[in-house]
Amino acid sequence: MLSKVAAMRDAYGDALLELGAENKDVVVIGADTTGSLKSGVFASKFPERFFNVGIAEQNLVSIAAGMALAGKIPYAGTYAIFVPGKSVDQIRNNIAYPNLNVKIVCSHGGISVGPDGASHQQVEDIAIMRAIPKMNVIVPADAVSTKAIAKAIAAIPGPFYVRLTRSSTPVIYDAGFRYEHGKANALKEGGDVGIVACGIMVSEALKAAEALRTKGVAASVLDLHTIKPIDSDAIVKLARSCGRVVTVEEHNVMGGMGSAVAEVLGERYPVPIRRVGVMDTFGESGEAADLLRKYGLTAANVEQAALGLRGQ
Amino acid sequence: METAQEVVRLKETARNTRKLILEALAEAGSGHPGGSLSAVELLVTLYFRVMRHDPKNPKWPDRDRFFLSKGHAAPLLYSVLAQAGYFPVEELMTLRKIGSRLQGHPSMGVPGVEAPAGSEGIGLSLAVGTSLAAKLDGKAYRTYVLMGDGEQQEGQVWEAAMSASKFRLDNLTAIIDRNGIQQDGLTEQVMPLEPLAAKWRAFNWNVIEVDGYDLAQLIDGFDLAIGTRNRPTVIIAHTVKGKGISFMEWSPHYHGTPPAKDKLRDVLSELG
Questions:
Q1: Third-level CATH fold of B3-269
Q2: B13 vs A152, B39, B46, B88, CA distance in Å?
Q3: A205-228 burial by CB neighbour count: b if 16+ within 10 A, else e?
Q4: Is A57 a catalytic residue?
Q5: Residue A133 near chain B (CB below 8 Å)
Q6: pLDDT tens profile B87-127
Q7: Is pLDDT above 60 for B1?
Q8: Is the Cβ pair A97, B122 closer than 8 Å?
Q9: Alpha-carbon gap, residue A303 to A40, rounded angstroms
Q10: Which residue does chain A place closest to B128, by CA atoms?
Q11: Domains in chain A, ordered, with CATH?
């Protein structure tokens, strides 16, 4: 675990191939980034069910809605900066308001996009998408769970947003991973501090828990892959057993997963919280690892936040 | 039915549609008469002559689809659907009221309404989606979408236009209610659209221009679209904002101002 890396995008491409074979209603729609998203592999096997609309993200989203109205299960996506970035109205009014069965799967979430710089680093998508009624929001932690999630949501009616990462990331799960909609995954149990993570920060949280262990601090780690609907019970249980919670996400601390956790705990079980994330700023060009370090998104930052909460 | 007889029948339905629109808007106390009245004949021709649909079975899989992209013309769509038998005509008087199915702009849950509308510029993309799905499924149903002319200022319309030609969607017919007026004034002053037909031709669409109140021309236009192969058709219907009510015609003010309830009798008398 964590020693192997794999790309979420490859896993997504694999999932689409299997979905295409299993369900003739699955269609794939892309916007000139289908090679990058690996949705293009679907095109070679099922060309009649693959549609490239060019650089037109609003049209991408609304065409997906139209196809869902006609009974299809569209998987539509591009880079997260463009969807939801350039198409919030279409997502809201065409997909979420009529509760359509559209699966929006986008790559290049967060600042780990790297050298392309801030214009391509989406750090607001969780906030945008979770504010839209009826929208389900998922941020998988690794390639294995990405494939399972991409496949599972085909069988769950309604609109989904799934955010993937550009770079290859550590593998956390084994092939036995099962996605349960709206249920967080407890990865580690410890009674001193609870760490809630999503996306590529889950592996950092696990590393932090290990570092904390050597200092005599027992940490729990929860993979909150599904941010909406949120697993309130798991979060409350974590707060109850640990008494303090650190959240970590590759997203603006405003409105993201940490905010969602704070909302739950504020109402149901208030405990001290520290949010690790992008501190309300834009990113910049650089290699992913350097950016994650510079913007405070590493195991060391999580460890520091946990120790800080304990007054250490 | 003979076209001449049919025209008489459609004209009567159009007259009644205008009456229902104005009554519903006066009762609601808000809403958009101008762009509802301008497009009456377009929808009446579609629903009572052109489209294959079954009000008793609104989800019939082989039905032709209609999307109202200019969602502010909801009173027009509701009035036509009610007369076709999708829901009781009396329900029109609940328009825009709390608890009503008849939202200010179309929403799901109203029999016959295919999709929500209200945000301009997105209906054509929906129509591209259902047209693609029809081709994929080998189904013969057609998709119709009514757009406003002011709506042509939205960039997404042209994204959708490009994609409809790329995918050769000859099962798609778009209609533009070319009444020349938008909320802030004349389209040609706010943001000029002309040469509009040339723009659509340049996007590889089959373009048909008609007088939006000449029912024979409208019927011919829709028939021509059905017979066109390998490319989508747009029917640019030249219309008059507020058509049928003298003080509403050509008036930007009546884009979004309903008739006063206490003047309704006089207003309706104009319909003859």
A1: Rossmann fold (3.40.50)
A2: 49, 13, 12, 16
A3: bbbbbebbeeeebebbbbbbbbbb
A4: yes
A5: no
A6: 999 999 999 999 999 999 999 999 999 999 999 999 999 99
A7: no
A8: no
A9: 40
A10: A63
A11: 5-170 (3.40.50.970), 185-309 (3.40.50.920)
Q: What is the DSSP string of B41-83?
A: HHHHHIIIII----TTSTT-TTSPEEEESSGGGHHHHHHHHHH
Q: Do B125 and A66 touch (CB under 8 A)?
A: yes
| B65, B115, B137: residue with CB nearest A98 | B115
By the CB < 8 Å criterion, does B145 face chain A? no
CB of B97 closer than 8 Å to CB of B128? no
- Mean per-residue pLDDT pooled into runs of 10, chain A (312 residues): 88 98 98 90 95 98 98 97 97 98 97 96 98 98 98 98 96 95 97 98 98 98 98 98 98 98 98 98 97 98 97 84
Cβ burial B188-198 (10 Å sphere, 16+ → b, else e): eeeeebeebbe
Q: What is the pLDDT of residues B26-67, one digit of tens each?
A: 999 999 999 999 999 999 999 999 999 999 999 999 999 999
Q: Among the options A57, A124, A249, A303, which is catalytic?
A: A57
Delimit the domains of chain B by residue range.
3-269
Size of interface A-B (CB pairs under 8 A): 102
| % of chain B surpassing 90 pLDDT | 97
